Amino acid sequence: MDMDHLFINQYIRSEQEKARVNRVSELAAVFARRAAKHDQEGSFPFDNFADLKEAGYMKLTVPKEYGGDEISLYEMVMLQERLAYGDGSTALAVGWHLGQVLHLRTSRKWPEELFAAFCRSAVEHGTMTNTFASEAATGSPSRGGKPETKAVPTDGGWLITGRKTFSTLSPILDHFVVTAYVPDEETMAEFLVERTDKVEVVETWNTLGMRGTGSHDVVLNGVFAPAANRLIGKGSDDGGGWLLHIPACYMGIALAARDYALNFARTYKPNNLNEPIRSLPSVQNQIGLMEVELRTARSLLYATADRWDKEPDNRPHLKADLGLAKYVATNHAIKVVDLAMRIVGGTSLSRNLPLERYYRDVRAGLHNPPMENTVIQMLAAGALNEE
């Protein structure tokens, strides 16, 4: 089979991209073999992260000036999609790190000294980051709830107390960002926090899908953050393009489900037929519908990422398009996995086969930002505000 003509490869544009994709494909194949075990146990895939670190994955979006690869958003989408083809949980979890480093690179909202030190650590030691903003009482931070976590001034910095939910990567992070309310100033702020004995990870993550992301609760018991670790956040508005790591992940899962169903259709021959079920018009119709969903979503996803890369001055105005790409990709991914299960039939429910995991994992996309109603309201507001 000519690898260049595989459907999954149709967005590769250069030899360099092809080389990176091939390396990530090798990792994805290894992760796919471990995925069922981590899913079953709800365990964090430390083994996968050790492999990603060794492969230099953590430095992909780090600026070149600090030793990183400085890949584009388009490339990040491509590599994240490919990683998720092997294991959705691992891809989504590491995507938060890759995406946020890309965001910090373009917005420069961290003090440069702090950002430089973090980048060098990511390059040398595979250090990762994430922002813990969700809380039980506020719901998704993208909806604008005020954090109940509080930061109070103390000698040389801040003491932070509170509890964060959906803290993806919490089992492995040494540093992370938390959002907190500063009562003295009646404002919300972000702080870079180091993991100490004042940080407790409470293993609450026991979910339907994406069971290996380690998105536990993190309890902060008066954690000290030096004054320099308050992130003032005056960076430029990059439109939030980095969040495309999310739809890329769900596209990867849908592609894995599609390929599983295609292989099944090519090989499964019940004894009442003379040839495999691929010959049945009803099966061909379902395969065609899968292609419609995937091709539509992927063309929009890659085109939007490419626009973001090529139109830096226009990035703040691409928010609605970026949201639409996520909305379409996640909803289409759910349909694709559903169609794949219909093609495979009753055995698709088996815990011994990966399809039922894809089916559970892909549903999580609906609950990652930006939220559906937010995207639809944004599109409506854009239309109504046209003169």
Give the structure's gist in a few sentences.
By secondary structure, the protein is an alpha+beta fold. It has helices spanning 15-41, 46-54, 73-86, 88-107, 112-125, 245-267, 281-310, 319-344, 355-362, 372-384; strands at residues 131-132, 150-154, 157-167, 175-182, 187-194, 199-202, 216-226, 230-231. It has 3 domains: 3-125, Butyryl-Coa Dehydrogenase, subunit A, domain 1 (Orthogonal Bundle); 131-231, Butyryl-CoA Dehydrogenase, subunit A, domain 2; 241-384, Butyryl-CoA Dehydrogenase, subunit A, domain 3, CATH 1.20.140.10.
Distinctive features:
alpha+beta, 10 helices, Acyl-CoA_Oxase/DH_mid-dom_sf, flavoprotein, 8 strands, FAD, Butyryl-CoA Dehydrogenase, subunit A, domain 2, 387 residues, four-stranded antiparallel beta sheet, 3 domains, Butyryl-CoA Dehydrogenase, subunit A, domain 3, 13% strand, four-stranded mixed beta sheet, Butyryl-Coa Dehydrogenase, subunit A, domain 1
